[in-house]
Amino acid sequence: MNRKNLFFVLIMIFLIILIFGILYFIGFLNYFNSKYVKNIKILDFTFLPKYIAVIYLVILTVFLVLVALIIIKIIISLKNESSQLTAIDIDDYSVEQDNKEKLAESYNKLVDSIDKKLTAIKKYTEIIDEDLEKMDKVNYETALEKTIESILQNFSHMVKDIIQSATISELFDRIIFWGVSLSNSKRGSIMIVNKEKQLYIFKTIGWNEEELKKFGEVKIPLGQGISGKVASENKRIFVTNVENYEDFDFKNKDKYKTKSFVSMPIFGIKNVVAVLNLTENKEGLYSINDLEIINILTSLSSKIYELIQYKKKIK
């Protein structure tokens, strides 16, 4: 539950306690035939039989219980709001459909969306080419041309490879390969959301046998840890220095050699289905460019994930 919701709940509880406290006080004053309540005619019903005060208090208690139940329900709904995801198992997935025509229409929309992604990448390369032409120094121009040519080739291969994924498992294999490659990372992992709303490791790169034995079978509930937070809150986490990251207490921060990492969500049809984690950039720290490159990869992969699922249903 975030701070705004917590503040709202506390204010609501305070007001309820205050209001019912006053109402109970009035009831008890009338029950004990207090002289204080007789001075305020609008609150005085001591002239009625004593059992009227008892009925009043009983009815008031019933209302208090009902209000308390409503408050509890609101608190539970707010608490679960941030992690209200539908867990998806890659080997057991289905899409509700009215008929195949609707699925075909959704399929076409996905294809159009992927085309737009590819067009955006093409425009990005054109901008780079235009910037290259404006360079004055020949040496810098030659060096940059080689670097950009390498980047564009990697992008081209990545897009072609991701699009050709035929299964979800194959797609996840390619996501972690290209995530590590494009970001110059030494280590990476991809974690998948299961039916119990937990994350488990699907594949790693750069991990040793000891780490795989220790963490390979670990399951992380949504909302816990960095990956659990990414999955439950549907957001990217990009940290250049774990020492300065105050939103999370790193128990093993000394094991981070470069103190920098990237954790990105991969979406399915409606929800987060996996999390890509990258650490130990070969050049030291991750840059904003690295983040945006990985963002393109995960965005495209999310669309391909949807496409694969719709293809399975249409067949």
Describe this structure in words.
With 315 residues, this protein is of the alpha+beta class. The protein folds into 2 domains: 3-81; 100-314, GAF domain (Beta-Lactamase). Helix content is 58%, strand content 13%. The protein has 9 helices and 6 strands. Strands 3-2-1-6-5-4 form a 6-stranded antiparallel sheet, with helices on both faces. A hairpin with a 4-residue loop joins strand 5 and strand 6 (272-281). Helix 1 (3-31) packs antiparallel against helix 3 (50-81) and helix 4 runs antiparallel to helix 5 (138-163). Mean pLDDT is 75; it is low at 82-98.
Range of helix content: 55-70%
First and last CA, distance:
42 Å
Helix run count: 9
What is the number of strand segments? 6
So, the CATH homologous superfamily of the largest domain?
Answer: GAF domain
Mass-distribution shape: elongated
CATH architecture of the largest domain: 2-Layer Sandwich
Q: Could you tell me the radius of gyration in angstroms?
A: 29 Å
The stretches of 5 or more residues where confidence is low (pLDDT under 50) are: 82-98
Domain tally? 2
Strand content: 5-15%
Structural class: alpha+beta
Kindly provide the name of the CATH class of the largest domain. Alpha Beta
Biggest beta sheet summary: 6 strands, antiparallel
Considering the chains and any ligands shown, give keywords for the structure.
2 domains; 6 strands; Beta-Lactamase; single chain; 315 residues
